[in-house]
Amino acid sequence: MRGRRWLAALPTGLVASPVVAAETATRILDLTQNVYAYLALMIFVLGYICVVLEERLELRKSKPVIVAAGLVWILVALAYRQQGDMHTAGIELQRYILDYAELFLFLIAAMTYVNMLEERRVFAALRTWLVTREFSLRQIYWVTGLLTFILSPIADNLSTALLMGAVVLAVGNHHYRFISVGCVNVVVAANAGGAFSPFGDITTLMVWQQEKVAFPEFGLLLLPSLVNWLVPALIMSTVVEPSQPGGERRHQRMKKGGVTIMLMFIATIALSVLVHSLLHLPPVLGMMTGLGALKMYGYFLSQHDPIYREQGHITHHHADNSSTQSMLRGDHTGVIRRFDIFKVVERESWDTLMFFYGVVLCVGGLATLGYLSNLSTLLYGSLGVTLANSLIGLMSALVDNIPIMVAVLGMDPGMTLPQWLLATLTVGTGGSLLSIGSAAGVALMGQARGTYTFFSHLRWSWAILLGYSASILCHLWLNGH
Q1: What is residue 248's predicted lDDT score, i.e. its pLDDT?
Q2: Which of 342, 406, 357 is nearest to 101 (CA)?
Q3: Which of 62, 65, 92, 64 is nearest to 76 (CA)?
Q4: What subcellular compartments does it reside in (predicted)?
Q5: Alpha-carbon distance 207 to 216, whole Å?
Q6: Are 261 and 120 in contact (CB under 8 A)?
């Protein structure tokens, strides 16, 4: 009874908000000429300028967009209130928060698996295997590119780029031209590989979860994505020497449970796909179920991994006396287990996840004011669908691909499946044109600081553009019907 009275006392918006958001018909007004709309657009632009200048300002990109999101929606509510509409802004905001929450939980599960594989040294073991194979520089160039293309649809393009970038640096030693070209090759392969899988990039995940493209239909982008990477890779390979590399030969073995976690990750992906395709439930249910299973397995690992004292010297052994066993149960804060699943979760890219929140809400606010409807008419009505989708891909080299895809999904210009696939391909791979156009490029610039730079990447932008154009033509030839 107390529980029922407590539930009845809650505000209606907290208890039934999803139902209200789903069943209440809202009418989006064109308020783009309103002073509040002008202010909202200006705030979004200022926030994004801070994102672009992230390195110079040393201000994490999530901070300005989160503030901008709050201010934009306050202005949206004031604009609708001025029109006598007291409900549309709140209902639309709840809808965008619900969309973000689903993507957030999905990404948390996927990132935890990737970080767990890293913690178990799966990637380090792969890097050791590559470095010790005695490949030539040209062979390493092709092996790292091919493995990047194969792994990025599963492990996401950023994580794969960092892994293969580490291999390029390890074997490159003083071969600076190889490191520079090898990093460009890895960035292009990571973005191309991530374009034909919902798990390869946030943008493809959004397209899948919005049910614009079914999971098997992403396979139609395999050959265009391969062309997107191979064309510039073939051109750049002409400057790679066939000589033997130098570099470190440090051996690292995979820790216990690495293979099991890889199999669990594959099973979790399969469960998400089946839950979505057969039961028509959100795929996040499968991912979170897999995350729960991973946490259970993490408990098993914590019982068998060595322990250490944070400020002491208890390592690689388990004590038998009762006092130490008491500390193992958590009765002494100075002793912690070597493996802790929550330590793995702490390593998530929280800045990216919070940035995603700010972008989704900012773009959603501008859509509610009518900006995206007007932009859709301008792009897809005036230029044509194919040309518009090709141009938005080029825009993603200057503007992060996440807000661009959020904007395209918000416009929802009524495209056919081949055109949604084209938009997925171009937005996912257009960022390869510049080193700052994708998270993979930005991350590798930090990893190979001074060798792989903006201008070293720009030197090959013409070749990447050829691959970009060829991939579009390949897609239109194969899937245009």
Answers
A1: 54
A2: 357
A3: 92
A4: Membrane
A5: 13
A6: yes
Q: What are phi and psi of 188, to 5 degrees?
A: -65, -45
Please report where in the chains the tokens 């553009």 appear, as a residue: 465
What six digits make up the tokens of 474? Answer: 């390949």
Minimal CA–CA distance to 165: which of 433, 441, 454?
441
Question: 450 Cβ partners below 8 Å, 6+ apart?
Answer: none
Q: What is the pLDDT of residue 347?
A: 66
SS (H, E, C) 282-297: CCHHHHHHHHHHHHHH
Q: How far apart are CA 160 and CA 167, in angstroms?
A: 11
- Smallest CA-to-CA distance from 76 within 353, 415, 362, 430 is with 362
How many Å from the N-terminal Cα to the C-terminal Cα in the chain? Answer: 61
Per 3-state DSSP, what percentage of the chain is helix, strand, and coil (rounded to 5)? 75, 0, 25
Longest dimension (CA), the chain: 78
Rounded to the nearest 10°, the torsion over CA 396, 400, 402, 404 is -50
Q: Radius of gyration (Cα) for the chain, nearest Å? A: 24
Distance CA 179, CA 448 (A): 8
Tokens 């300002």, located at residue = 57
Q: Is 61 helix (H, G, I), strand (E, B) or coil?
A: coil
Task: Record the tokens describing residue 5, joined without a space.
Answer: 């009275």
pLDDT along the chain (481 residues), means of 10: 38 38 60 89 89 77 89 94 89 87 82 81 77 80 91 78 79 79 92 88 85 90 95 93 65 82 88 84 88 89 63 37 42 51 70 81 87 78 86 80 80 87 92 80 74 86 94 91 62
pTM of this prediction?
Answer: 0.70
Integer Cα distance of 217 and 125 in angstroms: 33
Residue 338 has which token pair? 């070597």
Instruction: Look at residues 28, 94, 44, 45 and name the one whose alpha carbon lies nearest to residue 362.
Output: 44
Residue 454 to residue 183: CA distance in whole angstroms: 11
Using alpha carbons, select from 467, 407, 406 the residue that is nearest to residue 431.
467
Q: How far apart are CA 310 and CA 75, in angstroms?
A: 49
Other beta carbons within 10 Å of 446:
11
Cα 200 from Cα 204, distance rounded (Å): 7
Query: Which residues, including other chains, have CB under 8 Å from residue 63's CB and lie 6 or more apart?
Result: 50
Burial 327-351 (b: 16+ CB within 10 A, else e): bbeeeeeebbbebebeebbeebbee
Q: What pLDDT is recorded for position 165?
A: 81
- Give the list of residues 6+ apart from residue 253 with CB closer than 8 angstroms, or none: 121, 125, 128
Predicted pLDDT of residue 335? 46
Q: DSSP letter for 347, please.
A: T
The length of the chain, given as a count of residues: 481
User: And the tokens for 426?
Assistant: 């171009």
